[in-house]
Amino acid sequence: MKEGQIGVGQAVGAQAGTPVQWSVVLPDEYATGRLAMDLAFALVPGDLVALEGDLGAGKSTLARALIRALADDLDLEVPSPTFNLVQTYDLPRHRVVHADFYRLGDPSELEEIGWDEMADGAIALVEWPEQAPAVLAVPNRLDVHIAMAPEAGDTTRRVRLMAHGRVADALRRMKAIRSLIDLAGFGPARRRHLQGDASSRAYERLVGKARGAILMNAPRRPDGPPVQGGKPYSQIAHLAEDVKPFVAMARGLSARGFSAPTIYAADLASGLLVIEDLGDAGVVAGMPPAPVAERYEAATDVLAALHGMELPSTLTVSPDHDHTLPAYDLPALLIEVELLLDWYIPHRGGAPVSDALRTEFRGLWTAALASSLAQKPTWVLRDYHSPNLIWLPERQGLARVGLIDFQDAVMGPPAYDLVSLAQDARIDVPEELELQLLGRYIRDRRVEEDFDIRAFAASYAVMGAQRATKILGIFARLDKRDGKPQYLRHIPRIWNYLQRGLAFTELAPLKAWFDRHVPAPGQPAGQPVAQLSEQPQTT
């Protein structure tokens, strides 16, 4: 075994929910710190870590390293709680309670210090838990037994991890992550949290001395409840359920000269990827962030070049797997706009939408989308906007725009991604710049014999209205269902984009429907929407 390497034992317990055991060898303090770092990414509030072992075995050393890893601060002062019994830390991401019960006179003392209240909603680290067995009566627990291994060296420890409840699944995943990071050649790298997107995916930056990478942690998403025809929303809307579409699109884009991340290593079954780190430079700058025209123009050029290519609908993931991009078909586009009915209208105080009103809404959209669906489909990356575009000035031409977050790509109308860029959901894009980008795109593509300028411009308005309608529902859902109210601040901007699209003459029937039934941000919600369908309708 190389110095500093964690020896990986065999995880036991293949069934979800059953205890999982993992034995590791820690040859030195560096290896201890690396195990602590991995544990820090596996633990969540409500988990308890019980540290057992003889005096001097290294319980405090591991606890101290774990607290520093949770704080993302290797120099954090972590005093021993031996005399105070408990030390608490209000860290940026979690609250941590560190206890040492070696000097605990009687378990009843825990009630006096308010242990239950302290540990509630925190990650609890407990040394000498055998002094107070009652604290172990929690569903999500990690038992850590540490023993000296003098036959292997004065600093070597043997550690046995036994995980229960939720932590059992977390330990299995932690083992898979560590194996992939090592396989990709980033074993010594420091793991740093990256802010994720609105999905369930999580991202980390692997910071090494010579180079770095990104760990993409995207376990297969479970299907939600059926919403139409016995199918869940994700299946109707063609959302990626695993990482295979990301791998396929990354390789497909790179093969055509675009800057998608290189895949360094992949565990397709676990939904884990180690990919190229394209950096932090975006296509916006300043505070508040605003579009950088040169970078938006370059991003527009990428779309024009991509859409001018003959693109296949099936791509290779690996020698054993292909991925076929689904069609961005009418059912997908309709289920997306219906998010407005199911989430945004209730958010604005409206009653449940009647079946008659829903049918009318779907009919209007079916007619509006027909011409866009008739166009020659192309790769629609679907999230082509500022958070997912990286500026790479050291590269040349189209490669200056780094592309990420394209796992939900479909075959659909080319206008959709240009709308995503020029009507950014999170930042204000001046209407003048939007028109410049639209003109630039048309200029680049008009040399193609089969490019219909009029049809594309009409589709741009329709897809803009469709996307804005969908996002109003998504942001209301993120607030209500996912507890992310920060997205609500973008709703006025999305509403303005919606009005731009609905101003298109051919969308007049839809505009009349919105004017009757959907309150604008800041305006009274008015009568319940379910009743409005019974009233005479005028345009």
* CATH homology-level superfamily of the domain at 7-183: P-loop containing nucleotide triphosphate hydrolases
N→C terminal distance:
77 Å
Number of strands: 23
Q: What fold name goes in the CATH topology slot of the domain at 7-183?
A: Rossmann fold
- Quickly count the helices: 17
Largest sheet: 8 strands, mixed
CATH top level assignment of the domain at 7-183: Alpha Beta
Oligomeric composition of the shown chains: single chain
Q: Average pLDDT across residues?
A: 91
Strand order of the largest sheet: 1-2-8-7-3-6-5-4
The dominant shape is elongated
CATH architecture of the domain at 7-183: 3-Layer(aba) Sandwich
Unreliable stretches: 1-16, 527-539
Helix content: 25-40%
Instruction: Classify the secondary structure makeup into a structural class.
Output: alpha+beta
Explain this structure.
The chain is α+β, with helices and mostly antiparallel strands. Among the domains are: 7-183, 3-Layer(aba) Sandwich (Rossmann fold); 329-376 and 452-539, no CATH class. It contains 17 helices and 23 strands. The chain has helices at residues 29-42, 59-71, 109-113, 115-119, 166-183, 233-236, 244-255, 293-307, 330-337, 339-347, 355-373, 415-422, 431-445, 453-480, 491-502, 508-517, 529-532; strands at 7-8, 20-26, 48-52, 86-90, 95-100, 123-127, 141-148, 157-164, 190-194, 202-207, 212-217, 226-228, 231-232, 263-267, 272-276, 284-285, 290-291, 314-318, 321-324, 378-380, 389-391, 401-403, 410-412. The strands form seven sheets. It has an eight-stranded mixed beta sheet. Helix 10 crosses helix 14 and helix 11 runs antiparallel to helix 14. It is elongated and about 80 Å long. The termini are far apart. The model is unreliable at 1-16 and 527-539 (pLDDT under 50).
